[in-house]
Structure formats: C-alpha cells, structure tokens
C-alpha cells in the first residue's frame, strides 16, 4: 500500500471518525528533552540500561535500578509538555475534539511513556479552562482518556503489600539525593557503576515499610489496563501512531489490529518505520511540528 501525505484527505477522515486512538512512544517526549530509547547512547542501546527495566535486575541490584529511575525522575521533573503533548491533550477536551472530529464518540491516548507529560498537558488545560478550580479530581473523565500502559515513573509501588501511590518528591529519599550528587556529571554515558545504597536506605512503602519499587511495567510484566485497551482497539476507526519505533509488544500490534478491521492508520515519525508500508497516512517530521500542522490545532 502506498501511503498518503495529504492533510486535506486526513482531515476528511478525521471528520468522519467516531472512535479515535493514539498510540504514543518516546518520540512524543523527545522535544521536551527526554532521550528516546533508540538515540545513540540512549536508554535503549546501552546494555545495562535496557536490561535494567526488568524484575530480575531489580531483585539482584535494587540500588542500581533505583538510581537509574531516580535519574529519569529528575530529568522528567525538569521537562515540560511540548506542542505535541498539548495538541493530544486538547483532543481530550470534548469541545476541542468536536471542532476537528464532529462525529467523534471517544478519544484515548495510549502512551508507552512513563514520564507523566501527557497527563500534565491535560491537567494544564483543565486548570486553564477551570481557572477558579484549585484542584482537579484525579478521576476527571478528561484525564481518563490518557492510558499510561507501561506504568508511571512517579508511582511508588510496594514489593510486599502492593500499595501504590504517586510521589513527585525529589529526591525520594536522602540516599538517592546523595547518590545523584556523588555520581559524575555525565552519569548517563559513563560506565562507572554508581555507589551502592544499602537496601534499608532505598525508598520504602508508606503503608508497611517494606522495599518499594518504581511503578513502571518492566519487561515480561503485564502492561496496565490491557482489557480496556483491547476494547478500544477493537472499536477504533482511526489510529494515530506517534513517535514510536513500534518495537515493544503488545503496543506495537495495535495499529495493525485496527487496520485489520478497516480502521485508518496515520503514522507521525521523524524517520521511516516498519509500519509505514501498511499505513494509510504518513506524516514524516517531528511530531511537535506535524501534529499541530496536520490537525490544524496550534
Ligand atoms: C508483556 C517502561 C506479557 C519502563 C517499557 C520476543 C519477541 C517479541 C516480544 C517479546 C519477546 N520476548 C518478550 C517479549 C515481550 C516484550 C517485548 O515486546 N520485547 C521486545 C523488546 C522484543 N514486551 C513485554 O515484556 C511487555 N509485557 O508482553 O507481558 C504478559 C501478559 C499477561 C500477563 C503477564 C505478562 C511489557 C513491555 C514494557 C516494558 N517497559 N517501559 C521504563 O520506561 O523504564 S518499554 C519502553 O521501551 C517504552 O515504554 C517503550 O515501550 C519502549 C521504547 O519504544 P519507543 O517508545 O517506541 O521508543 P524508541 O526509542 O524505540 O523509538 C522512538 C521513536 O520516536 C523512533 O521511531 C524515532 O524515530 C521517533 N522519534 C524521535 N523523535 C521524534 C520521533 N518521532 C516524532 N517526533 C520526534 N520529535
Ligand atoms: Zn507495603
């Protein structure tokens, strides 16, 4: 299949779409300064990094894995949503969605990212539109449209009682703060193993005091909300695939499944991806430029 690059044709499809799904990956947050997994020396390529996101690594060296996630928490706290996050967040607001997709009955962003930037972008919009509200209910339906299927960097999950809560504090515990200072400035690329922190000084569960872990989904662990996602994928008639190399299952199979039941697939990526060959539309370029341009939302 030869894909189209026509914005007008895409907008015509968008106008007719009823159940819209976005599948996003690390490329969505690239413009916010967070490295993707495939960039040279990025999170994905260096052996010890990619193997860190596993239960066995945590069980054998919780100190190293916590320092890896502490470093990512610090970077994610420094980052802000970019134009791509903001456009996708606007679609979560019913009035905005109706403006570009008048027939839309549902919209969901299924993100592989754990950096919380998509949630923050929706919260920023809610706060802006509900200026007089001092807080938002975490079950605000507009936030429900964001599904963080690989968990959340800022959730702290107990290894014993299962308690899980969001904690944005930095550092999470004094020992991680000290470790960050101790590590050399180019920690991400240096091969020096950081000082080990005794397990008693690692983050603990607020409920039972046992060792806590980052609330993310590691390899061979079950992604979050799979039933909900499968229902959405079954019903979707439009899928936007944004900033993902589509290498990790099950996320990598959603677009193909939507196409199989005659949904439309549009890929937004800076480089060609294996899915392009089957895509109906491909918009090549940075998603923080292409999403506003193609959706006509600035
Ligand atoms: C599961 C959270 C079952 C943690 C992550 C053998 C063969 C095939 C599959 C498997 C296999 N063995 C095991 C599996 C399954 C495995 C898997 O798929 N492995 C792969 C590596 C082969 N999957 C799992 O284990 C999953 N679980 O299957 O469970 C199960 C079921 C029921 C019950 C029990 C068990 C769980 C996987 C989740 C792993 N956790 N993250 C953390 O972040 O630390 S994965 C992590 O890496 C991300 O979440 C993401 O999913 C993945 C990276 O992918 P991308 O996001 O796409 O990022 P990448 O860097 O690769 O690409 C960036 C793209 O952006 C590029 O295309 C680039 O061109 C583009 N880009 C860059 N800048 C821009 C841009 N595009 C647009 N604009 C820009 N500015
Ligand atoms: Zn506990």
TrEMBL record:
Its main location: mitochondrion. Gene3D superfamilies: SIR2/SIRT2 'Small Domain, TPP-binding domain. Pfam families: SIR2. Zn(2+) binds at residues 158, 161, 205, 208. It is found in: Mitochondrion. Keywords: Metal-binding, Mitochondrion, NAD, Transferase, Zinc. The keyword ATP-binding does not apply. One of its GO terms (cellular component) is mitochondrion. Residues 1-298 form the Deacetylase sirtuin-type domain. Belongs to the sirtuin family. Class I subfamily. PANTHER family: NAD-DEPENDENT PROTEIN DEACYLASE SIRTUIN-5, MITOCHONDRIAL-RELATED. This is DHS-like NAD/FAD-binding domain-containing protein. The lineage of its organism: Eukaryota, Fungi, Dikarya, Basidiomycota, Agaricomycotina.
């Amino acid at each position: 299949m030869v894909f189209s690059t026509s914005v007008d044709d895409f907008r015509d499809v968008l106008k007719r779409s009823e159940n819209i799904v976005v599948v996003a990956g690390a490329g969505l947050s690239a413009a916010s300064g967070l490295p993707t997994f495939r960039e040279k020396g990025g999170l994905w390529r260096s052996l010890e990094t990619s193997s860190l996101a596993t239960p066995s690594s945590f069980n054998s060296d919780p100190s190293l894995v916590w320092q890896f996630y502490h470093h990512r928490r610090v970077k994610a706290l420094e980052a802000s949503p970019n134009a791509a996050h903001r456009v996708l967040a606007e679609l979560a607001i019913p009035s905005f969605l109706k403006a570009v997709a008048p027939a839309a009955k549902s919209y969901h962003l299924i993100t592989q990212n754990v950096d919380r930037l998509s949630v923050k972008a929706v919260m920023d919009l809610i706060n802006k539109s509900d200026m007089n509200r001092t807080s938002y209910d975490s079950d605000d339906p507009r936030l429900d449209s964001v599904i963080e299927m690989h968990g959340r960097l800022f959730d702290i999950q107990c290894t014993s009682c299962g308690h899980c809560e969001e904690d944005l504090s930095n550092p999470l515990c004094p020992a991680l703060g000290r470790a960050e200072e101790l590590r050399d400035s180019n920690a991400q690329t240096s091969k020096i193993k950081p000082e080990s922190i005794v397990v008693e000084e690692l983050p603990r569960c607020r409920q039972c005091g046992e060792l806590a872990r980052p609330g993310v989904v590691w390899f061979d662990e079950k992604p979050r909300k799979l039933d909900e996602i499968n229902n959405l994928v079954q019903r979707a008639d439009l899928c936007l695939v944004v900033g993902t190399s589509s290498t990790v299952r099950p996320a990598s199979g959603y677009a193909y499944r939507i196409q199989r039941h005659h949904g439309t697939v549009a890929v937004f990526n800076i480089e060609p991806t294996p899915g392009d060959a089957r895509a109906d539309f491909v918009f090549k370029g940075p998603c923080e430029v292409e999403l506003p341009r193609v959706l006509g939302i600035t």
